[in-house]
Amino acid sequence: MSAEPQTVFACRNVHVFVGEKEIVKGVDLEVRAGEKHALMGPNGSGKSTLAAALMGHPAYRLEGEVLLEGRPIGDLPPDERARLGMFLGLQYPTAVPGVSVANFLRAALSARLQREVPVREIRQEMLKGFAALSIPREFMGRYLNEGFSGGEKKRFEILQMLVLKPRFALLDETDSGLDIDALKVVSQGINRAAGPDVGVLLVTHYQRILNYVQPDRVHVFIGGRIVSSGGPELARELEERGYDWLEPAASAAEGNAP
Asked: Mapped to the 3 state alphabet, what secondary structure does the chain carry?
């Protein structure tokens, strides 16, 4: 009998506040190695707030338990979570003028591995990622995200994931702003990075990226709560029916909250 895959990420009874306002209202989630989960919900439901708070964004106050490979990380700063193997793909990647793509990735990988990464090693990793994501080599010397298109920025988010090899990746609306060709390339990169030892939580509004990144589980997030979970068929149902049919479940969850 084969061993059950390890749980790489879990959160239990997570609440997230901005000031005194509660945005996320009690989330339980478990992602095992090799699994891809999709978190879907309408605008304003709190999905991106949850992702940022799980990564330790200082603008949010998180209550509850957050575990990475069984280790509590709720009190750790974002950089320490990243060193331990947690990755956040940003919805709106920031330009970093004066820092080249090559230097940025070398510094990030050195921090992740806690050793100085030689230029040759990072170059080999970058070239493999560039090829997988159809990125021209001349981007190595360009400043990170400066003058990049929306699609190029998203490709470089996935490039970071390929290079850093996290154990758990949170991808916050990676599909937003992508045309169909860029969506296919980015999805291929996600599938390449999401190996048997990696857990992925993909936050999205739409089912379209899930045509290329097949989820093992789909969770519907409305009003700061997960109101329904299921297999890939749940995403297809959302595509056909929208989110309105789940509003009664969201209202019931709100009414049953302590």
From this structure: CCCCCCEEEEEEEEEEEECCEEEEEEEEEEEECCCEEEEECCCCCCHHHHHHHHCCCCCCEEEEEEEECCEECCCCCHHHHHHHCEEEECCCCCCEEEEEHHHHHHHHHHHHHCCCCCHHHHHHHHHHHHHHCCCCHHHHHCEECCCCCHHHHHHHHHHHHHHHCCCEEEEECCCCCCCHHHHHHHHHHHHHHCCCCCEEEEEECCCHHHHCCCCCEEEEEECCEEEEEECHHHHHHHHHHCCHHHHHHHHHHHHHCC
